[in-house]
Specification:
This protein has 327 residues and is mostly helical. The chain has 14 helices and five strands. A three-stranded antiparallel sheet has the order 4-3-5. Strands 1-2 form a two-stranded antiparallel sheet. A hairpin with a 6-residue loop joins β1 and β2. α1 runs antiparallel to α7.
Length: 327
């Protein structure tokens, strides 16, 4: 976190948590934070001072009302503001710097709502109190994150933070997800979304993201190449394409201008399948998946989902004829 961002971010936390102090207590529970006794004692003292001053103002107002003619009495006594909630102040100013991102993430989750569906009327959206509150919370935070060049950004659903993804990978993911959905592979899109969310979370899960990256490719490749296999896997798909290479053509041509072979696709499948280093526990080859490895796996999976969804690998004409005759 840049030092220049910290004071502004703490101010944002205070202003945001103060919108609903009750949720500030829930943030404390979610993050396993304990309010120091000194903060509790200071709040109690401030509350007592406020109550004494309020009682003095109430008594003076009542005396003033009693001194007025009966027909001129009215109005209300002045009301002093309540002391700032101690949980709000602690989250903003009492937490260590490394906890601040977790506080921001939790506040977004508890106080914000997802963007309205496209089919909702603009007037209905504007009238939604939660939608307006979300906008007031998210817009200043987004500005802080952009201006400080933070590694984090507000997630698309506005209910948390995520690591800022490179524009190229983000665009490629959207292309792959749309291609999969258009081709009828909705499970592949869901797996890509889960992989992205786990990889870009404040506390990322590289191993879980790697699993979902593999599942995204399997969701397209298994029904495409192994429709009759009761237990298809990405490894089996790789072996099938490698062993039956003569049956398939790749849209990229070779040097002679003829449809290419599948060796490039098989190489990507191999990298993705064999690079999953913590798939089996307890053995000497078990190696934790790093953030960099998971990012590489997601990049490969994104390319494979796009290529396979768009039928970049297909049966050669003779093999397709035999396939239809066999059916």
């Amino acid at each position: 976190m840049p030092e220049s961002l910290e004071p502004a971010l703490r101010t944002w936390i205070e202003e945001t948590a103060a919108r609903n102090p009750g949720e500030a207590a829930h943030v404390m529970v979610r993050l396993d934070l304990v309010l120091p006794q000194a903060d509790v004692d200071a709040y109690v003292r401030e509350q007592r001072r406020r109550d004494r001053e309020q009682a003095r103002l109430d008594a003076r107002w009542e005396a003033e009302q009693a001194a007025r003619p009966e027909g001129t009495r009215g109005g209300r006594p002045p009301v002093l503001p309540e002391p700032a909630d101690p949980c709000v102040l602690y989250l903003a100013w009492g937490t260590e710097r490394e906890v601040l991102w977790d506080v921001v993430d939790a506040l977004l989750f508890l106080l914000c709502t997802e963007p309205p569906a496209p089919e909702k009327q603009p007037v209905v959206t504007w009238l939604s109190g939660r939608t307006r509150r979300t906008k007031r919370i998210v817009e200043p935070l987004n500005r802080l994150l952009v201006e400080s060049r933070s590694v984090y950004e507000v997630a698309p659903d506005r209910r948390g933070l995520q690591r800022r993804m490179e524009a190229g990978l983000s665009e490629a993911l959207n292309t792959a997800a749309n291609a999969a959905e258009t081709s009828g592979y909705l499970a592949a899109r869901r797996s890509l979304d889960r992989a992205r969310d786990k990889l870009m979370a404040v506390h990322s899960d590289p191993s879980g993201a790697y699993v979902d990256a593999i599942r995204a490719v399997e969701a397209v490749a298994c029904p495409m190449f192994l429709p009759r296999d009761p237990l298809p896997t990405l490894g089996k798909v790789r072996d099938h394409l490698r062993n039956a290479d003569a049956k398939y053509a790749y849209v990229l041509t070779d040097k002679s201008g003829k449809p290419g072979d599948t060796r490039g696709v098989v190489a990507m499948l191999t990298d993705l399948w064999e690079g999953h280093s913590d798939r089996h526990a307890g053995g000497p080859r078990e190696v934790p998946v790093t953030q960099e490895a998971a990012e590489a796996a997601l990049t490969i999976a994104t390319a494979l989902v796009t290529l396979l969804s768009k039928r970049a690998v297909r049966l050669r004409p003779a093999a397709a004829t035999r396939h239809r005759e066999a059916r």
